[in-house]
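User: structure tokens for this one?
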Amino acid sequence: MFCSQCGAEVADGEKFCRNCGAEVRSMVIVPEEEIPEEMPDEAAEAVTAPVQEVPAASEPEAPVGVDSKYEYIMANFYPAGDKMKAISFYKRETGLDIMEVRAVIESMFDGTYVPVPDPVEVKPVYSPLEQYIRDHFDASDKIKAIRYYMDETGADLTEAKEAVEKMLQ
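Assistant:
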């Protein structure tokens, strides 16, 4: 049998894919010789009806904050003891290798995990002059940007050239 999410081979009896952590939906295959020639109408309809995939319950997005993935797992998966769903969630959120994810989830469930703050994206703050040059000029307009910088600051050509080249990197 193969995982419907990632296509990895799944051993018989497994409830979750070892590769991606997705729940394995089992399928019963009845050999043709065991199907009676005359079936009741409702059984025939069941055999010929298209299989409808039951959508998995969607999980809400993890909140952003101090180790939000840890908080989300502890609130939603830990109380039910659902390590496999926690592994699936954490792998999807982080993109880490399945073995790393498993180790992190195990540590969360056994109480040895130390929460760490989520990384914060730090955007550089530019002076109004530098922001204007970044917004209005590119490498092909370097000479115009240098002239603009010289007019605005009174800098000489060498100083303006160095400053603009640094801004346009």
